């Protein structure tokens, strides 16, 4: 098992090295930094960005908007998912709303959010509407997939609602949500950045990317892509740690 894991890591590393080499060769052939900058130029910009005074402020504001939008979506998804699982009428009433939320293109949501809200709140609202349907479906399916015999047993033994929620419903929801955690949070993070690109709040990764785009500074845009990728990778590590802590028995 460990040998297979090491082979996978080596293959991923080799693939990354090949990708960087191909990138550098193509960039040198094109000889046009606006279309494709060289690897060394991007990493010089990366170093400059990290050392700049606004770096942590921009990352903090983007992550803060993402966390708020994600937590709001999670809380409302938990409440509505639980209510919908217990009441079929409410479940059917929420179905078209959820379908509408999933069908609206992200850019349309960004435009509408900028019309209805200010430039600081618009990215947050867009993140919420993109993530909420995924979390709601996850919560609802997690509850509906609970063995009906277990539910009937809790009814027969007249288990209190509080104990039923904590001992039966919550573990099912928790497992479902943890499986979605990184993918949904990473999605919210990217959508929030897209909202910042169009909304241009004072601080945010998207604001900086839009500024660099206006100056045709492709090197800096690639550097920010690397930063976003690193943050997404760190989120995956956090999810693995949480999963091992809470579901170590599954190993």
Task: Characterize the structure shown.
This protein has one domain (48-250): MetI-like fold (Orthogonal Bundle), CATH 1.10.3720.10. 84% of the residues lie in helices and 0% in strands. It is built from ten helices and no strands. The relative contact order is 0.12. This is NitT/TauT family transport system permease protein. It comes from Clostridium cavendishii DSM 21758. Its main location: membrane. Residues 59-239 form the ABC transmembrane type-1 domain.
Helix content: over 70%
Number of domains: 1
Report the β-strand fraction as a percent range.
under 5%
CATH class: Mainly Alpha
The beta-strand count equals: 0
What is the average per-residue confidence, as pLDDT, rounded to a whole number? 84
What is the 3D shape? globular
Please provide the ordered H/E string of secondary-structure elements. HHHHHHHHHH
Q: Which short descriptors sum up this protein?
A:
mainly alpha, about 250 residues
Task: Briefly summarize what is shown.
This protein is mainly α and 251 residues long. It has ten helices and no strands.
Q: How do the helices and strands line up, and which of them pair or pack?
A:
Layout (H helix, E strand, L loop, with lengths): L1 H29 L8 H13 L3 H32 L1 H16 L2 H11 L5 H23 L3 H9 L4 H39 L5 H10 L3 H29 L5
Helix pairs in contact: 2-10, 3-4, 3-6, 3-8, 3-9, 4-6, 5-6, 5-8, 6-8, 8-9, 8-10, 9-10
Main location: membrane
Pfam family, one: BPD_transp_1
Membrane topology: Multi-pass membrane protein
């Amino acid at each position: 098992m460990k040998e297979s894991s090491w082979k996978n890591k080596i293959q991923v590393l080799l693939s990354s090295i090949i990708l960087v080499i191909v990138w550098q060769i193509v960039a040198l052939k094109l000889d046009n930094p606006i279309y494709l900058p060289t690897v060394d130029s991007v990493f010089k910009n990366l170093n400059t960005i990290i050392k700049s005074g606004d770096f942590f402020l921009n990352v903090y504001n983007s992550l803060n908007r993402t966390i708020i939008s994600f937590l709001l979506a999670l809380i409302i998804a938990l409440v509505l998912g639980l209510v919908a699982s217990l009441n079929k009428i409410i479940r059917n009433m929420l179905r078209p709303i959820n379908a509408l939320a999933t069908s609206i293109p992200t850019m349309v949501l960004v435009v509408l959010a900028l019309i209805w809200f200010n430039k600081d709140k618009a990215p947050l609202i867009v993140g919420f509407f993109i993530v909420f349907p995924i979390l709601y479906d996850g919560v609802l399916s997690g509850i509906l997939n609970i063995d009906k015999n277990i539910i009937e047993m809790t009814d027969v033994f007249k288990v209190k609602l509080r104990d039923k929620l904590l001992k039966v419903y919550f573990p099912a929801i928790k497992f479902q949500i943890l499986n979605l955690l990184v993918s949904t949070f990473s999605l919210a993070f990217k959508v929030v950045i897209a909202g910042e690109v169009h909304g241009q709040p004072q601080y945010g990764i998207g604001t900086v990317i839009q500024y660099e785009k206006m100056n045709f500074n492709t090197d800096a845009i690639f550097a920010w892509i690397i930063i976003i990728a690193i943050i997404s990778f760190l989120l995956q590590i956090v999810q693995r740690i949480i999963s091992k802590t809470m579901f170590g028995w599954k190993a």
